[in-house]
Amino acid sequence: MKRQILVVASGVALAAATAESTEWSTQWADGEVETLASLSLDALEPLPADPTNRYADDPRAAALGRRIFFDTRLSSNGAVSCATCHEPARDFQDGKALAQGVGTTDRRTMPIAGTAYSPFLFWDGRKDSQWSQALGPLESPVEHGGSRAQYAHVIDAGYRAEYEAVFGPLPDLSAVPRTAGPVADPVASAAWASMPESERESVTRVFANIGKAIAAYERTIRHAPSRFDRYVHELTTTGRAPEGVLTDDEVAGARLFIGKAGCINCHNGPLFTDDYFHNTGVPVGRGAPSDIGRHKGAEQVVADEFNCRSTYSDAPSGECPELDYIVLDSDEMVRAFKTPSLRNVAARAPYMHAGQIATLEDVVRHYERAPRSPAGQTELHGLRLSNREIRQLVAFLESLSGPLSAPPSFLHEPR
Amino acid sequence: MKKGTKRTLKIAAGALAALITVGCMMHMGMPHAHPPAESEFGMGPRRSTSGAYTASIIPNGELAVRKLQTVRVAVADSAGAPVDGATIVVDGGMPQHGHGLPTQPRVTRSLGNGEYLVEGLRFNMGGWWVLSFAVDGSVGSDTITFNLDL
Fold first, then answer.
1. Nearest by CB to B104, which of A264, A278, A325?
2. Is the complex ipTM higher than 0.85?
3. DSSP single-letter state for residue A90
4. What angle do CA A347, A240, A14 make, to 5 degrees?
5. In B, which residues are within 8 Å of A308 by CB distance?
6. CATH 1.10.760.10 residue window(s) in chain A
7. Topology of A59-222 in CATH?
């Protein structure tokens, strides 16, 4: 089954290598070619439907969502938008250990491309759709810091026509307080409690639709091929390893990634993630509180006001399999965090859920050492890697950088 | 306790090793578990621990990594007669990694003729998985354990 096939060596790229390593670095067993192909963007399935958001593929919703995404009026201080932390020019993240909105969060900003494929969002998976994810930061006291009533008024004042074209008539907001929502702020919270139930419901409906518009925009943000994808595309279509696409170190790193180092166990598939949660013994971040990750996130998503089963979801009744079969109250999920995609990872330091690790080399050394977890049990068992192999793994990770793709102008702030 | 488990594993073999694996290691973490012989892999028919039942997994297409999927499990007694009306609990995991399944699959329907629908099954990575069905039916309680290579 693991028949070795000799891939014809290319002289140029390998000129510096020894005869022995040249031969080794250009040979892939057919099982390995299959594994490499499983990681390539060529293997990415079409964007899955989001039955919870009936506007997910409406271009008008995406255009509105894009404008909202960049609009700082959706914050308590008029200075924070989604793009504050999700900067389009930086792979929709911010390069900071802990995200900074109107305050400082407990977690590292995650990128957006490809998240339409994830059954659970956030490092702890406490949301089960892109649209419900988008609503979390809007009412977080340290992110946008505002309230749903405030945001409904922003839609009324700034986006009425665009909103109504997609979602139908806006409710009458004339009696709705400027600031009101089930948030930490006592004034907004008291105002919310004083509103009649029907009014709260219609404001929440507008709020949910804001999330659905943002999700329609975010769905369009995709990964475009990296050098690794080009290498695999050529390898699988011609049967030969292409010249000059990956360096020897990158090829050796790919071999370690899918073999000895076992990275592919969790970082599998074309998005380099198993979409699940693992305790990898990452230390508690500086300035971040102790964090039990998915153990709590699983409880939260089941109880979430905007989950697949909620009245704001468009999913047909009884069709929320991710929630139906979710693992709850599992010791394995204590301090387990989502496996992040590794696409564009080299441009995304610092690493881990609270930016605890500064460089990719240090990340690989973390997996090599496999320290005890501050809580729960780490799944890591340690690796034996030479300094050269660590360098090769890092080189491979750097070959996963590529541009993003989206409809024209969607990767920029609207004028 | 870990040392003791390791010693036990050394003297156990084949299917027995696989069963101890399922029982003891799935939720403890055991990096050095060794997969059983190739003949122990597959979708059955496979005998339960005490021989009360045999079962086969009937997939809906090829089992895939990361996808939430549905399979059928066909249960028979030791004489080969289909067993209906049983209560079946599904469990599983990766003995080499020390973790369980990423979902909690369940038997959601009895399909008749000894077949049951298992929904919510996911394997989040490639490699050696065990999948067990604890059957409580007409001839008592027993567990059938499958070794699967994803």
1. A325
2. yes
3. G
4. 65
5. none
6. 4-47+225-405, 59-222
7. Cytochrome Bc1 Complex; Chain D, domain 2 (1.10.760)
As a residue count, chain A comes to 415
Question: Using the beta-carbon criterion (under 8 Å), do B68 and A266 form an inter-chain contact?
Answer: no
Domain containing B68 equals: 2-149
Nearest to A326 among B27, B100, B103 (CB): B103
Mutate to test the interface with B, among A301, A325, A329 (most CBs of B within 10 A): A325
Instruction: Tell me if chain B has a CB within 8 Å of the CB of A332.
Output: yes
Task: Give the predicted TM-score (pTM) of the model.
Answer: 0.90
CATH of residue B23: 2.60.40.10
A30-34, A387-391, B32-36, B63-67, range with the lowest pLDDT: B32-36
DSSP codes, B35-76? ---GGGBSS--EE-TTSSEEEEEEESSS--BS--EEEEEEEE
Contact list, A332 vs chain B (CB under 8 Å): 27, 99-100
Residue closest to A203 by CA, chosen among A182, A162, A173:
A173
Question: What total number of domains does chain B contain?
Answer: 1
- Which CATH entry fits the domain spanning A4-47+225-405: 1.10.150.120, 3.20.20.210, 3.30.70.2740, 1.10.760.10? 1.10.760.10
Higher pLDDT residue, B2 or A317?
A317
Determine the residue of chain A that is closest to B98 in CA distance: A379
> What does the alpha-carbon distance between residue A164 and residue A175 come to, in Å, rounded to a whole number?
20
Please count the other Cβ atoms lying within 10 Å of the Cβ belonging to residue A222.
17
- CB burial of residue A186 (10 Å; 0-12, 13-18, 19+): exposed
**What tens-digit pLDDT sequence spans chain A (415 residues)?**
333 333 333 333 333 344 334 444 568 998 999 999 999 999 999 999 999 999 999 999 999 999 999 999 999 999 999 999 999 999 999 999 999 999 999 999 999 999 999 999 999 999 999 999 999 999 999 999 999 999 999 999 999 999 999 999 999 999 999 999 999 999 999 999 999 999 999 999 999 999 999 999 999 999 999 999 999 999 999 999 999 999 999 999 999 999 999 999 999 999 999 999 999 999 998 777 789 999 999 999 999 999 999 999 999 998 999 999 999 999 999 999 999 999 999 999 999 999 999 999 999 999 999 999 999 999 999 999 999 999 999 999 999 999 999 998 999 999 8
Name the residue of chain B whose CA is nearest to A331's CA.
Answer: B27
A265 CB neighbours in chain B (<8 A) are: 97, 125-127
Asked if B90 and B107 touch (Cβ cutoff 8 Å), the reply is yes
B92 - beta bridge partners? B131
Shortest Cα–Cα distance, A316 to chain B (Å): 17
CA atoms within 13 A on the CB side of A303: 6
**Residue A10 · residue A243 · CB < 8 Å:** yes
The tokens describing A200, both together, are 């709260």
Contact list in B for residue A274 (CB cut-off 8 A) is 65-66, 102, 124-125
A265 contacts B97? CB cut-off 8 A? yes
| DSSP per-residue string spanning A146-194 | --HHHHHHHHHHHSHHHHHHHH-PPPP-TTS-SS-SSSS-HHHHHHHHH
